[in-house]
């Protein structure tokens, strides 16, 4: 890119790197890009002569990537289908957040500790579903507390809410449900208007973590009521990821890619663009399409 920029006498190079990727790609670090820009201006004729300063731009460098963790042995065993992750990915795209990882783990303490530790270091946002019930295999609260190095604290308002639900249903309240009113110290409680399992919002390592209940009805409601507003206030929601689907037929995958290569290069996943720019890209593509391109 640097050599081609010098040939074109261009002064700006744009890269699509993201800082979250530096765990596997050290050249994605902001410090690396700053050092490379300094080197570029020492290694090019225009830079040495002072005629033109070359600038490196990385507009996606701070773009947040999310990880979604689905918890439950019923998922890893294949007994139940995980629909929460697909829904959350689509919803996060509406808030401009790209999902980089989907992880499914069983109700196992060691697996939960390893998973949350890794996710909170490589992602800017971690959303988990499941593991907030009252049974012994519901481990999310204590795992987050252990990783955060804080104790669990009792939250009286959450307990009163749980008591009210059981009272309204005319059912006895097992003392075991008390664990659902325990939260890592310093975390925020995500109110559950549809069930007995409140969620957790807290910072862990490099990420904000939102722990949501597993039942889809409760998860969806809590995301809209409690998580979405926090994404905006925390600066994690930055626009919208626009996706469009084009249906093709009559050719194999590689042949189709050859004919649509220009389009796929120009509208990559994760790119932030103005709406009129997206529309313009597709209008230009549709104007150039010919039926004979897709017939043998």
Task: Write the SSE topology.
Layout: H1 2-8, E1 12-14, H2 30-43, H3 45-49, E2 55-57, E3 65-71, H4 73-76, H5 84-94, E4 98-105, H6 109-122, E5 125-129, H7 140-148, E6 152-154, H8 156-168, E7 182-184, E8 188-190, E9 199-204, E10 207-212, H9 216-233, H10 253-266, H11 275-288
Parallel strand pairs: 1-2, 3-4, 3-5, 5-10
Antiparallel strand pairs: 6-7, 8-9, 9-10
Helix pairs in contact: 6-7
Task: State the helical fraction.
Answer: 40-55%
Distance between the termini: 38 Å
Number of helices: 11
Number of strands: 10
The H/E string reads HEHHEEHHEHEHEHEEEEHHH
Alpha-beta classification = alpha/beta
Question: What features would you describe in this structure?
Answer:
This protein has 296 residues and is an alpha/beta fold. Helices cover 42% and strands 16% of the residues. Strand 9 and strand 10 form a beta hairpin. The two termini are 38 Å apart.
Key phrases:
single chain, 296 residues, alpha/beta, six-stranded mixed beta sheet, two-stranded parallel ribbon, 10 strands, elongated
């Amino acid at each position: 890119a640097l050599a081609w920029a010098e040939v074109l006498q261009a002064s700006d190079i744009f890269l699509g790197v993201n800082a979250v990727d530096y765990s596997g790609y050290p050249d994605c670090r902001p410090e690396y890009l700053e050092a490379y820009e300094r080197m570029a201006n020492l290694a090019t004729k225009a830079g040495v002569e002072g005629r033109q300063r070359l600038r490196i731009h990385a507009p996606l460098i701070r773009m947040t990537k999310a990880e979604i963790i689905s918890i439950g042995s019923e998922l890893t065993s294949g007994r139940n289908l995980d629909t929460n992750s697909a829904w959350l990915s689509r919803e996060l795209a509406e808030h401009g957040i790209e999902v980089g990882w989907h992880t499914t783990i069983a109700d196992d303490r060691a697996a939960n500790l390893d998973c949350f530790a890794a996710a909170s270091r490589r992602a800017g946002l971690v959303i988990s579903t499941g593991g907030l019930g009252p049974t012994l295999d519901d481990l999310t609260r204590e795992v987050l507390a252990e990783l955060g190095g804080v104790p669990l604290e009792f939250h009286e308002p959450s307990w009163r809410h749980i008591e009210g639900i059981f009272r309204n249903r005319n059912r006895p309240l097992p003392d075991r449900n008390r664990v659902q009113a325990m939260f890592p110290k310093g975390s925020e409680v995500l109110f559950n208007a549809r069930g007995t399992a409140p969620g957790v919002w807290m910072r862990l390592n490099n990420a904000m973590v939102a722990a949501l209940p597993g039942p889809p009805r409760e998860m969806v409601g809590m995301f809209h009521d409690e998580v979405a507003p926090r994404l905006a206030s925390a600066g994690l929601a930055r626009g919208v990821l626009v996706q469009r689907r084009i249906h093709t037929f009559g050719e194999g995958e590689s042949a189709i890619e050859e004919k649509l290569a220009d389009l796929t290069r120009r509208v990559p996943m994760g790119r932030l663009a103005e709406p009129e720019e997206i529309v313009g890209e597709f209008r230009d593509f549709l104007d150039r399409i010919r039926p004979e391109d897709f017939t043998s």
